[in-house]
Specification:
Number of helices: 7
Number of domains: 2
Distance between the termini: 43 Å
Shape: globular
Structural class: mainly alpha
Largest sheet: none
Radius of gyration: 19 Å
Length: about 160
């Protein structure tokens, strides 16, 4: 939408769109605003991308409003679950669309997408902000450390069972 996909020099002309989680979170509303202004309102892919951006920003807003609480209030949890479901549906639709074009621009079914679903479903018991770190993505190193602690004196299968 912002650059011509047929332009062979586009990788040299435009910077790659990689960023850290905290940077992305800080820019989501701006991205959504720009996308809404530039998108084709009749294109289902563009609509899915806008809904995905808005859902992500709204989820971050709910978690930010409850950042000091150990759990998310029930009414916020219900909204969080609805937003996460909308986010997942949009991601699946985008995956299906771009797979037909043989371009893998979006991923669903990853560890992080599954963790998001579990985290929002359990958010009335434990706030997702307390289970992973947006800014440093420190959740995975912590999981590795926990897994290594389960490995001591065990085989791989027994360690995974203990870890789960």
């Amino acid at each position: 939408m912002f650059c011509d996909p047929n332009d062979k020099q586009r990788r040299k002309k435009y910077a790659p769109s990689k960023s850290k989680a905290a940077e992305t979170r800080a820019c989501l509303l701006a991205f959504a605003s720009i996308w809404k202004a530039k998108m084709d309102r009749t294109n289902d892919v563009h609509i899915s991308i806008l809904n995905r951006l808005k859902s992500s920003a709204a989820m971050d807003g709910i978690l930010e409003n409850n950042k000091d609480a150990w759990n998310v209030p029930v009414n916020d949890k219900q909204e969080l679950v609805a937003l996460a479901n909308r986010y997942a549906i949009c991601t699946a639709a985008l995956c299906n669309h771009f797979e037909k074009e043989t371009r893998k621009l979006f991923q669903s079914g990853t560890f992080k997408s599954n963790w998001l679903k579990h985290a929002v479903l359990m958010s009335d018991s434990l706030n997702p902000r307390h289970t992973w770190c947006f800014s440093g993505e420190s959740y995975m190193p912590v999981c590795k450390q926990l897994m290594f602690s389960c490995l001591k004196g065990r085989g791989a299968l027994a360690s995974i069972q203990k870890f789960m």
